[in-house]
Amino acid sequence: MTQEHQGGGRGWSAARKGVWSRLRFTSLRLRLVVVFGLVALTAAVSASGIAYWLNRESVLTRTQDAVLRAFEQEMQNRAGALPEHPTQDELQRTAGQMANSSQRFTVLLVAENPAGQTVYGSSGGLNGFSLGDVPESLREAVTERQKVTSNNKYPHHLYWQRIVEDDTPYLVAGTELIGGGTTGYMLKSLEPEAKDLSSLAWSLGIATGLALIGSALLAHAAATTVLKPVQRLGTAARRLGEGKLDTRLRVSGTDELADLSRTFNKAAEALEKRVADMAARDEASRRFVADMSHELRTPLTAITAVTEVLEEELEFEGGGIDPMIQPAVRLVVSETRRLNDLVENLMEVTRFDAGTARLVLDDVDVADQITACIDARAWLDAVELDAARGIHARIDPRRLDVILANLIGNALKHGGSPVRVSVREEPGDDGDASGGSVVIQVRDHGPGIPEEVLPHVFDRFYKASASRPRSEGSGLGLSIALENAHIHGGEITAANSPEGGAVFTLRLPRDVSAAESGEKSGDAGDEGAEGDA
What we know:
It comes from Streptomyces erythrogriseus. It is an enzyme of class 2 (transferase). Residues 224-276 form the HAMP domain. It is found in: Cell membrane. This protein is of the alpha+beta class. It is 55% helix and 14% strand. The protein has helices at 3-23, 28-77, 88-99, 136-143, 191-241, 256-315, 326-354, 366-376, 397-414, 477-487, 513-532; strands at residues 106-112, 118-122, 159-165, 168-176, 183-189, 362-365, 383-386, 392-395, 419-426, 437-443, 491-496, 502-509. The chain has a 5-stranded antiparallel β-sheet. A hairpin with a 2-residue loop joins strand 3 and strand 4. The longest helix is centred in the middle third of the chain and has 60 residues, at 256-315. Mean pLDDT is 78; it is low at 1-10, 19-23, 466-470 and 515-533.
């Protein structure tokens, strides 16, 4: 895959993540839109359902009443004019006449002819409306003779029922003439009304959909109006967390969000003042340490010169120093050297804290640099070196020497001999060795580092044992080594080897030029952050 394709893939992935972050179900905007949509959908569906039900009953009732009145009227006028025992031809002719009414329904007439036989007359012909098309329950109700009372003046009534045949709704009605004689049944298709109701249902469905879309747009607009101050507050909080303590919100209005913006501004102002005070005190503390270190260097220089003379007198046989005070002189010499190292380390730490430490880069052979460090401190007999020559890196030789001296010296002092120093190369991400890293491991054969001590080995002035706060070291060596690794763009880690002993791993880039430029800009940013945080 080419670099352009990789970049395009990353851009598409970032865009997809951005869209998903805006649409994720934990988004307040999406939840508002969903709630508005559900409320609108519930209201629209309820209103549409009620409207459809009311219109359906109104349409069907109006059509049904008109058809039943017309059928009842036709039964009274035309069927009532038939003789008590009509012939089939008379029934057929009357049924046709009844079917030609304004409602255009199908009619079936049933009676007994003069011979006592049951005859039928249908407006639909022989294959039209028949008695089998009438529900049995309706036939029984029509033919059943009711008891005549004061509340029920007629033995027969008009009965009706809605049925569905082949997905088509029909209205079926039947009645028997008062006094006996002809029984009539009517069949009326309700398909036109069903089509009208279907069109109404579609219209209500479309109206519901439009209401849902409108509510979603309204919810989005409302969410934007409500959430815009919240988004501004979130952006301001992120800027505040990034160290931009001068961030403030523009306040407008008198609502709760305006009160929240005012509270944020007051909190940011108080935080900026407090951090500024802390930064000023921290700067004063660093300046005090730097000034104190500089002031101590002058008397220390004189004292160091005197102690060197005293040390020479101690080594000179037959010297003029009384044997009784020789231990005290040796103590003064060692403590003066320790104090001198402490002052130098404090000055180095002050430079790191102030961001004034800079690299002086040079192309060095890592193996030669390690050998020079070991040889200068007479550690050749106690250190095993596993480093092939020809591994070059562009780094600061002096700061690398400081790192190695602290790591190897710490291993010799607190670990066990022999101390083994190994060097290897790690290629870069693109497989180019020149853009990779140099890894230096310093391993001792001591008891290792206690697990509770491992997270603190690079802390300043940290003592592994509180019962022995005094030692030959200043407690700053490993901290200074780590700072020197960081200024190279590298890292130091501490761990325990499975075979025993502690292992310190130094990882530095092969070419620190890019890291140095980034470090310089980072130093400026750190100084600004220290001023703000």
